[in-house]
């Protein structure tokens, strides 16, 4: 995926995510602001990931482009802070310890098999029937996984046996992302 966003646009989206989380946690509402930037009005798949002291604190998103980038960032910023079932809701007191990361995604495409997946470039969706597991492109790099570990963990995340993909019983889709975070782009005071 070609990174089509300027550093200023990425910073604007990160500030939007933080402002939205802050307003939601303190006032119980999301911003209703709109954007004039035509790139932000395009429909995009988006995930918002929260880290606290380097550890995952929440991650929710849309793999498909069902809403504008601007709205998707706002919706998923709130969802990652209060709706991720793996974690208790973020509190207003934690906000200063939270780093926000945004992943803007391409549309997932079905691939023939694991040999078509490139670790570090591709995010994956593993599915069989109604079971699905999604991992963002940065996850295997952060975890130090090779291809087999990556696909196996994708199966586990889908609620399948981790070797299910070796039996040829799963569908694999890949997508790419532009990933950027506050740690890299914003200095904290």
Characterization of the model:
- This protein is α+β, with helices and mostly antiparallel strands.
- It folds into two domains: 7-105, Glycoprotein, Type 4 Pilin (2-Layer Sandwich); 109-175, Hypothetical protein ph0010, domain 2 (Dna Ligase, domain 1).
- The chain contains six helices and eight strands.
- A four-stranded antiparallel beta sheet has the order 2-1-3-8. A four-stranded antiparallel beta sheet has the order 4-7-5-6.
- A hairpin with a 2-residue loop joins strand 1 (45-52) and strand 2 (55-62).
- Helix 1 crosses helix 3.
- The two termini are 32 Å apart.
The ordered string of helix (H) and strand (E) elements is HHEEHEEEEHHEEH
Shape verdict: globular
CATH architectural label of the largest domain = 2-Layer Sandwich
Would you give the CATH topology of the largest domain?
Answer: Glycoprotein, Type 4 Pilin
